[in-house]
Specification:
It is built from 5 helices and no strands. It is mainly α and 125 residues long.
Length: 125
Amino acid sequence: MKPHAYNPQRAIGAVPRCDVCGEELDLDEWVAVRYACLSTCVPVLRGSHLKHRHPEVAEKASRVGKPLSYGLIASASVALLGLLLSDHVLAGGALLLAAVLLAAGTAVRIGTLRASARLRSHEGT
């Protein structure tokens, strides 16, 4: 099996494949690898492929993703509360914080997948 680099365009309209190793996956396992916090931080998906084949991705998602995920949820809740209370300064600040946390989490997620895919491709050569 040939590992491939993280490439979101290749996933559209194709058979779901692991972003790290290229193995064919069912849809819920593919989502669990791509969005590791769904199986490590907030246990929505089982993520067995992620936990057994790519424990380094699961560990980093758990370690780094939890503060980002829960911070995003909390700041989005505060933004909603600020809107309900008509406190636009509170809502704007919390919304800005939520956007920053979302951007940071996305950057970490993509960076982790790319680094793991590069590491796997170097191990295979």
